[in-house]
Amino acid sequence: MTTQTRSASSRKAPATSKALQQKILHHLHTTQGTYPEKASALAWWEATAAAINEFVMAGLTDTQKTHSRYDTRAVNYLSMEFLMGRLLSNNLHNLHLFETTDKALAALGQNLTDILEQEPDMALGNGGLGRLAACFLDSLATLNYPAVGYGIHYEHGLFEQHFRNGRQIERPDDWREYGNPWEVCRPESVQQIKLYGYVETVYEDGRARKVWHPGRNIKAVPWDIPVVGYNGANVNILRLWESRATDFFDWDVFNAGGYVDAQIEQAEAEAISKVLYPNDETEAGKELRLIQQYFFSAASLADIVRRYQRAHGDDWTQFPKLVAIQLNDTHPAVAIPELMRILIDDKDMDWNHAWQLCHQVFSYTNHTLLPEALEKWDLHLFEKVLPRHLELIYEINHHFLTEEVEQKWPGDDGVKSRLSIIEEGARRMVRMGHLSVIGSHRVNGVAEVHSELVKSDLFPDFHALWPHKLTNVTNGITPRRWLKACNPRLAELIDRHASKDWPVRLDKLQKLTDLADDARFQNAFMKIKHENKEELADVIKALTGIEVDPGAIFDIQIKRLHEYKRQHLNLLHILALYRRLLENPDHDMVPRVFIFGAKAAPGYRLAKDIIFAINKVADRINNDERVGGKLKVVMLPNYRVSLAEKMIPAADVSEQISTAGKEASGTGNMKLALNGALTIGTLDGANIEIAEEAGEDNVFIFGLTVDEVKALNSRGYNPYDYYLNDAELKAVVDWLDTDYFTPGQPGALSSIKHSLLDGGDPFLVLADFRSYAEAQLKVDARYRDRKAWARSAIINTATMGKFNSDRSIQDYVDRIWKLKPYPRDNA
Ligand code: 6GP
C-alpha cells in the first residue's frame, strides 16, 4: 500500500461530460420528478448534487470498507462547530469534476456558477474554530487518514444577518429547510443519552457499584455528511447528532388528556440540537449549552465504543492503539468523565485501568486565551444535569491532587487550589480547561506565540508539572477551497508556472518567488487581481447598492466582530482619512475602499454598536461628494464562508489588527495572504509566522508587541495619555459624540468613545492608533509603486506553503495522533 497522496495530474475525472449530462438528467427526472423546461434552479442544483453523490457515495463505501478491513487507527475529532460552507463546488473540485460538470450543464442550457449559488451554506459554526475543523476534515481525507468528525446536527446554524437602519438584526438560518442532498441518516446507529436523575450506590459481591438513574432519556440520531478528499482520495465521515424525544410521541400521556405535556417533552428533547449558540469565544454558561455538549460527546463516545467493540469485544488492550480523540477546545471536555463512566460503570473496569486508557486516548486543542471563553460550569448546575459525572470529576481531581500534585509540590495548598478542577469561591465551579489538560496526553495551542502563552500565562503550573504535555500546532487552511476553488484565475496561472500538484504541495508555490520581478508575470498576476476586484465590485453593488472603483485599493477586514479584533481601530483610521480629505480636498492618497464583513453575537452590545457605527460612517462618506471618490466604506451583510470566497480573491490589503496576545492564530490572515493580499497587522497569532515566511518587507507590521502590551498594562495604561496628545486621534474620537454620522441623534455612537476612554480601552486601540496610521501610509506608498506592490503580492502567494492545513494535520499526526494513511482499496 502506498502512503503517498497521488499527484494531481495522475487523476482524471471519473466521468465524461456526456455521461454526467445523462446522470444529471436522470436525477432531474427520477429524484426531482421534473424536466428541463420546468425545473427551477434549485431542482437543477439538487439533480447535479445527486449525480455527483454517486461518485461520493462509492468513495465513501470503499473508504469505510478499507478502514474496517485493516482495522485502522482513527482520530475522532469532537467539535461543537463545523463551518463547512457549500459542498457542491468543493466536491466537484476534489473529484476533478468541475470542468466536466460545467460542460455537462452548459449542454443542458444551465450555468454552473448560478447553480452553485443555490446551495445554502452549512453554517454550523461561528468563526475560526469551526472553519478550522472544516479545513482539517478536508486535509484528513486528502491525506488518507482515517478520521471521523463528530458534532451537532443543528437545525439552525449561525443566524442570518440583515441591517435595518444600519443596525444588525438576526434572522434564523434554515440551511436544511428543503432537505439537504449530502446527508444520510443512519437510524441503525441511534444512541440513547441520559440526563439528570440521581446516582445510587449498590453493593454486589462486597463491592460498591454506582448506578445512575437518569431523569430523562434522549435519542441521538446520526446524520452522515461525506467528506471528499482531494483527488477523490478517501471519503471520510462527518457524523452530526440530532436530538429527538425517545418515545417520539407519548400516546399514553396524550390519551390521558395531557396533550400539551406530550408535546412539551418532545419539544424539550428537540431543543437540544435546535440552534447553534451564536457566541464566538464567550462561554454561554447555560443549562442547554451544557446539555448540548454532553449530548454530542456522549453520543460520539457511545459510537466510538460500539465501533471498537464490534471488532474487539471486551478486549480493551487495543483501544488506545486504535482510538484517538481530539477535543476541539473545551466544549467536548465532558467526554473525559463520560469515557470513565462507560468503562467503570458499564464495562466494569477498575479505576486505574480506565484512567490509563482514557488518558492515552484524549488530546485537547486550546483556541483562545480570552478569559470570557474559558469554560467553567456552576457546580450545582453540573450536578443537576450530570450527577454521575460530577462524582467522577471529584475522583479524577482527588487522584490528580493527591498523587501528582502532592508529589511534585508536597504540602503546597496554593498550587493545589490553582490546579484543582474545582474552583472554590462563593459559587463553586468546574473548570473545563483544567479537566481537559489533566485528561489529555497532549495539549496544543494554534500558533507559536499562542502556544508559548498557553505555557507561560494560561497553564504555567501544568507546564511545570508536565513539561512535555504542552505543544504547538500552527493552524492551516485548505488550499483546495481557499485558492483552487475560490480563485480559479489565479489557480490557473499558478498551474502554468508552478508544479501542478500545488493543491496538495503548497510549498511548491515557492517557485513563484523567481517570477516576483518578472514584468509579464506581475502583469498577469495583477490583471487577475483586478478582474477579481471587478467581480467583487458587482457583488457589492448587488448587495448594498454602493458603487466602488476596482482601481482603488481593496482593503478588507473579515472576521467576527470583537473588541479584541479591533474593527474600531480600522474605523478610527477611516475617520482620520475622511477628516484629512475634508480639511484638504487635494489630500494625496490612493483611492481606497474599506470593506468589512462581520457578525456580532446578538447579545454583545458594543460589537453591535461598532457595526452600526461602520454602517453610519459608510453612509456619510459614500454620499459625500467632497471626498472625490477617494474613500468608500462598505459593510457587506451576512458575512459567511460563501461570501468570504468572493471577497478573499479580491483583496489588496488584509487587516489583521488584533491587540498582540489576543488572537490565538487567525486563519483569515492565511487565506488573504495566499490570495496575494498584503497584511497590515500586529505581531499577534499567526501574523508572526506569516511575516517570517513572506519576509517583513512584504507585510506591514505595526503596534505594540506581546511584551510591550504586558509592560504597558502592568505600568498602568491610561488611554487619555494618547487621546490628549494626538490631536487627530482626539478629533476623530470626539467626532463619535456628535450627530455628524447620525443626523438628529447625537450620542448614537458614543458607546464606542466611552469604551475607549472611561471604559479604559481594554484592547489598547488608542495606544496603537498612531502606529497603525503610519503603517497605512506605507501601504499607500507601496501601492503607488505598482511593481513593488505586485512583487510583494506575488511573494505573499508564493510563501504561504506552510499554512496548508495538510501540514497542520501532518503535525497533529506526528506529534499527537500517530496515524497511518490508508488509501482506499479500489481507488
Ligand atoms: C479561534 C481563535 O480566536 C483564532 O485566532 C483561531 O485562528 C481559531 O480559533 C482557530 O484556531 N477561537 C475560536 O473561534 C473560539 O471560539 C474558543 O475559541
Portion in strands: 15-25%
Q: Determine the fraction of residues in helical runs and give it as a percent range.
A: 40-55%
Q: Would you count the extended β strands for me?
A: 25
CATH domain topology of the largest domain? Rossmann fold
**Radius of gyration of CA atoms, rounded to a whole number:** 27 Å
Largest sheet: 10 strands, mixed
End-to-end separation in angstroms reads: 12 Å
Query: What is the name of the CATH architecture of the largest domain?
Result: 3-Layer(aba) Sandwich
How many structurally independent domains? 3
State the assembly state of the protein chains.
single chain
| CATH homology group of the largest domain | Glycogen Phosphorylase B
Q: Treating each run of at least 4 consecutive H or I residues as one helix, how many helices? A: 33
CATH class of the largest domain: Alpha Beta
The rough form would be described as globular
Calculate the mean pLDDT score and round it. 96
Low-confidence stretches: 1-10
The chain-level structural class is alpha/beta
Ligands, deduplicated: N-[methoxy(oxo)acetyl]-beta-D-glucopyranosylamine
